[in-house]
Design a protein that fits this description.
Porin, eight-stranded antiparallel β-barrel, 2 helices, 9 strands
Length: 220
């Protein structure tokens, strides 16, 4: 019984320490906030061809280190998948057409900046999101369309949604207080494609990424 009373007394004596102990947090007490946006270009393999994928990014930066934002990318031009035989109309006839691939993706971007006040420093990024790939063709003769579109317009053959994860490691240059340029290496992993013309591996690839950021970059 005496042991219990002594334990209770010690707890009460140390209660102010428990109450007033400083709380430990990831970002610290006074959190600074800055932000940026800008264009971004990825050069990577898509279905066996090296192509540019262009887009834009935007994010807030907390305490000069933690990045929370997002971005989106897409191929500026359709890519040829070669000549394929496809069904045309309700009669079961087939035609040979050159198929075209459209590809894009986007999502949330989480990152971390190391030594942001140094002229050249490094960042880690992780983009997690979703995308779409569609296969189209030009119906050049009457009756070839599957959706009744004009022969001068592209007709959609199939559309695919997928999940995407893209980690990247980049070096960043402080050009000015309002501008930074970063470039580095990324790996795009696509999961969930269900197409007869390409698969997950055809849309997944190592990549070179270049981004120009404009905004407010407060010092630590």
């Amino acid at each position: 019984m005496l042991t219990i009373r002594l334990a209770a007394l010690l707890f009460l004596l140390n209660l102010p320490t428990y109450v007033y102990a400083e709380q430990q947090t990831l970002l610290g007490g006074n959190v600074s906030l800055s932000g940026y946006g800008g264009p971004s270009v990825i050069i990577s393999d898509v279905n066996g061809s090296l192509v540019p994928i262009v887009g834009g990014i935007g994010a807030g930066v907390f305490d000069g280190h933690l990045i929370i934002g997002g971005g989106g990318y897409g191929m500026p031009n359709m890519m040829s998948l070669g000549i394929h035989s496809i069904a045309a109309g309700a009669g079961g006839t087939t035609i040979s057409r050159e198929l075209q691939l459209g590809f894009g993706f986007g999502g949330a971007d989480i990152g971390w900046v190391f030594m942001p006040d140094e002229l050249v420093h490094y960042c880690l990024h992780l983009l997690v999101g979703a995308g779409a790939a569609e296969v189209n063709y030009y119906p050049t003769e009457p009756g070839d369309t599957q959706s009744g579109s004009s022969p001068a317009m592209m007709d959609n053959l199939e559309s695919n949604g997928f999940f995407v994860v893209q980690p990247s490691v980049v070096a960043e240059l402080n050009v000015a207080t309002f501008c930074r340029i970063e470039g580095g290496i990324a790996y795009r992993r696509v999961i969930g494609v269900m197409s007869k013309y390409f698969g997950d591996d055809d849309l997944s690839s190592l990549a070179v990424i270049l981004t120009v950021k404009f905004g407010w970059f407060g010092s630590e």
